[in-house]
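The records we work with from here on pair a chain with its fold. Here is one such record, which you should read through line by line:
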Amino acid sequence: MCGEFDDEESLAEELYQHFTKHAQEFLDKLTTLTPRGEDAQLYTYLDALFRTALKSAAEPEDAPPTVSGYDRLRMEPLVYARLAGFMAAHQPLDEDPLRRLIEALMTGYAEGEEMLAEHEHDPSDHHGHTH
């Protein structure tokens, strides 16, 4: 039974390492757009906020040493979802904040799946496990 726990812990940390690698690759691939128009400063700010949050999620030294990387990977999305819900509750209903949140959530999910799909087809990234 002890060996099973070690295997599960090892797999969990491997998943976290996989996430941090993909997060860094995703950040490296993201192009910084130069928005134009009246909302240019807002979109520049939002892009920087997204990059900062993703970088923070993928930085092991941002958490206490007793918190595993996988625990962060498993729980931090709940914090962001809670924050998004709190902020959405303060928006006018005619802006349909729930729909916008769900669209943003699905965009992020698709971006994560795209990164996984790219690595499944990259023979140099084979780790002997399935995604």
Remarks:
- DSSP finds four helices and no strands in the chain.
